[in-house]
Write a sequence for this structure.
């Protein structure tokens, strides 16, 4: 007998984005660095917020991901319909990132045990959230869109393109950090960054197996599913 809870695809998209934002919030509060993917936006946030106190991490993510979509459109030589849908995802995620930071605060935890717990919780929530997002047909963030589009355009292995993108993102973040702060900050690139790169893949795979035992990720809104696939393919 199939006891899995069915038709949770759209819910997985919403919950995945909300939890990814929570994961980023906790990683930032650990003071041990953030993932390579969000590191450039985090540098932008830390620098601009020194001058503009109202500039949030969510705003930085929105600005950076919109820049990525613009650059992607230039490379692809057209702006696809699905890029607009990615904008919706970016806005939704960015708003929730700011909500979580308002709830938990923007500053790094003062006690060491709090920082460690924050980093571990951030890693676990992030892996669970990504596992959810990988099982939804709805658009993911600009980071994933760039990897997918470039892999398809140049007929390359997606894992290889993802690896190149992550390393490039890390390099951009380090360059931005050195130019703007004139020093290397372990608050931006630190233990968390290395841990996320090393163990994220097996954590995501494990979370995915557990999720598929309990949930059926078929779409709840089948007409939306058909419309989306007809538009993007």
């Amino acid at each position: 007998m199939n006891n899995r809870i069915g038709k949770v695809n759209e819910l997985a998209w919403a919950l995945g984005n909300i939890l990814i934002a929570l994961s980023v919030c906790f990683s930032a509060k650990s003071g041990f660095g953030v993932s390579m993917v969000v590191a450039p936006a985090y540098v932008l946030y830390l620098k601009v917020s020194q001058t503009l106190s109202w500039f949030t991490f969510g705003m930085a993510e929105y600005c950076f991901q919109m820049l990525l979509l613009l650059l992607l459109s230039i490379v692809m030589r057209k702006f696809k319909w699905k890029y607009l849908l990615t904008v919706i995802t970016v806005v939704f995620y960015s708003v929730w990132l700011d909500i979580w930071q308002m709830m938990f605060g923007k500053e790094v935890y003062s006690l060491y045990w709090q920082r460690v717990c924050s980093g571990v919780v951030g890693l676990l929530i992030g892996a669970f959230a990504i596992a959810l997002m990988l099982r939804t047909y709805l658009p993911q963030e600009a980071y994933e869109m760039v990897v997918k589009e470039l892999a398809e355009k140049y007929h390359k292995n997606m894992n290889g393109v993802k690896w190149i993108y992550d390393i490039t993102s890390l390099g951009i973040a380090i360059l931005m950090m050195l130019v703007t702060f004139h020093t290397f900050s372990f608050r931006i690139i630190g233990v968390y960054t290395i841990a996320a790169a090393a163990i994220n893949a097996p954590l995501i795979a494990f979370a995915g197996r557990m999720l598929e035992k309990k949930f059926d990720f078929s779409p709840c809104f089948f007409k939306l599913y058909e419309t989306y696939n007809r538009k993007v393919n």
